[in-house]
Write a structure and sequence with these properties.
Elements: E1 4-5, H1 22-42, H2 48-55, H3 59-62, H4 64-87, H5 89-109, H6 113-123, H7 129-140, H8 146-174, H9 179-182, H10 187-197, H11 211-229, H12 231-234, H13 239-261, H14 269-273, H15 275-303, H16 316-321, H17 324-344, H18 346-366, H19 371-399, H20 405-432, E2 435-436, E3 441-442, H21 444-465, E4 482-483
Parallel strand pairs: 1-4
Antiparallel strand pairs: 2-3
Length: 484
């Protein structure tokens, strides 16, 4: 059976791949969509104190601007990926971008912290752009371009952090903070371009959505992440924190039990049990942990006044600029990672990426007296994150049936987010445990310990990467939508 869809422009029966420029234009739209979400994820972090002041909110309430977004994105990502598998990824991507832009308007006009948090939760739905983009690349890019295109899209996940933090500093220092959210309206032209350029190919057989499985997965992720992200405020040993994390694990077990029994599950458990997918997901969690730890540690270290005996006394903007070398490296390394993966295998690229990340954190643990050391570490870390994310996307797509690509890559993306939540929380806990009474600041040894912890996590990630089978099947060709 041949799936049919409609796209503005083009003659009857035209194949989108017949136009040599079409895959490039589609990729440009996907890159813009992904950068929208990646920026929204980190843009507010340096501005939280200013947001609290402008809305008259407390620190605890303001932290929900980040927590609500994180929870929403984690819950929405696998479900949006599944909806794309069923109803057509182009169509779902268009609506996700519109919802994201609407959330940005709500945020920009918010007069209270409650409205702002609601807008951020609405924007979190855009977490699904990554699994949608991965599936669209598999459908529309020429076969020989798929690895490099997936690699470039994957790099955006880390690039957003490297660009978002310094951009936030510039906005906070020189403009109204509402521009942190008005900038999200760039998603609207991306949505229009997605509607016009990306064919929607619904599944030939459209099964019912496994709503019990979707609800259980959402509750498991939400409970676990809420416990982790609020552990700094509630305490890691508090009954609330332990109850939420433990409850999330119990719900995850129940989700597995439900998925094993239904005829049309949210995702085939056999896909998750594949060694390539399981090892890649474990690596994703570790890499996400280390990456988000760096987002917290590096700017905070750089902003520490030199009177503390370490740090550089930088502004928010200056501290964010230390992450720019990492972002630029990822932008340049994305296509390189794709070509290298085709030559030596993405298993090796994944292990290289985690090894580079380990080297970066080892450098920072023992050499952090000068900004140039952070620049060198940033280049290493950027290369490592880019190689790792590029390899993970390619490995999961290669090991997954076409009908399961959206949900499978969605879960891999969620594993990065879960790891990132742990990374930020653990790094903050290490710093909080080593406060110097005379300054009220963490000791230099606290940063050394936090960087060393991140290096150890990268070692574990390397071990997980080496568990990926040496040979992962090349992605099977997928039918291309017929354009009416």
């Amino acid at each position: 059976m041949t799936s049919r869809t409609t796209r503005t422009g083009g003659g009857a029966g035209a194949d989108p791949r017949d136009d040599p420029s079409h895959p490039r234009r589609v990729l440009a739209v996907l890159l813009l969509a992904c950068i929208c979400f990646a920026l929204a994820q980190t843009l507010v972090i340096p501005a939280l104190p200013q947001i609290a002041d402008s809305l008259g909110a407390g620190t605890s309430s303001t932290s929900w601007v980040l927590t609500g977004f994180l929870l929403s994105a984690s819950v929405a990502t696998p479900i949006v990926g599944k909806l794309g598998d069923l109803y057509g990824r182009g169509r779902v991507l268009t609506w996700v971008l519109v919802i994201f832009a609407l959330g940005g308007v709500v945020n920009a006009l918010a007069g209270s912290i409650e409205v702002l948090v609601a807008g951020r939760i609405l924007q979190g739905v855009a977490g699904g752009v990554f699994p949608l983009a991965f599936g669209i690349v598999r459908e529309t890019s020429p076969r020989e371009r798929v690895p490099s295109d997936l690699s470039l899209l994957s790099a955006v996940f880390g690039i957003g952090g490297g660009i978002g933090l310094p951009l936030s500093g510039v906005i906070v220092d020189h403009a109204d903070i509402s521009w942190l959210f008005w900038i999200n309206l760039v998603a609207l032209p991306a949505a229009l371009a997605a509607h016009r350029l990306i064919p929607s190919t619904p599944a030939a057989h459209r099964p019912r959505i496994d709503w019990p499985g979707a609800v259980l997965l959402s509750l498991a992720l939400g409970s676990t992440l809420l416990g982790v992200t609020r552990a700094d405020a509630w305490g890691w040993s508090s009954p609330t924190t332990l109850g939420l994390i433990g409850g999330g694990l119990v719900l995850a077990v129940l989700w597995v039990a439900v998925e094993a029994r239904v005829t049309e599950p949210l995702i085939q458990l056999s896909v998750l049990r594949q060694r390539a997918v399981a090892a890649t997901n474990a690596t994703a969690m570790m890499v996400g942990l280390a990456m988000f730890a760096s987002f917290l540690l590096i700017p905070q270290f750089a902003q520490t006044p030199t009177s503390a005996g370490y740090g550089f006394g930088m502004t928010v903007t200056g501290a964010g600029l230390l992450l720019v070398p990492s972002a630029l490296t990822q932008l340049l390394a994305g296509p390189v990672a794709g070509r290298l993966g085709v030559r030596i295998g993405f298993r090796r690229v994944l292990a290289l990426g985690t090894s580079f990340s380990c080297a970066a954190f080892c450098l920072l643990a023992f050499a952090h007296s000068s900004p140039w050391e952070f620049v060198v570490a940033g280049i290493l870390l950027g290369s490592g994150i880019c190689f790792a994310f590029a390899a993970m996307a390619n490995l999961v797509v290669a090991a997954t049936p076409p009908a399961q690509v959206g949900i499978a890559t969605g879960i891999n993306t969620v594993m990065r987010t879960v790891g990132g939540a742990f990374g930020s929380a653990v790094a903050a806990a290490i710093l909080a445990a080593h406060i110097v009474a005379s300054t009220g600041l963490p000791s230099e040894g606290a940063y050394t310990a936090a960087f060393a912890f991140s290096a150890a996590v990268a070692v574990v990630a390397t071990c997980a990467a080496l568990l990926v089978p040496r040979q992962v099947e090349e992605p099977a060709p997928v039918p291309v939508a017929v354009i009416d």
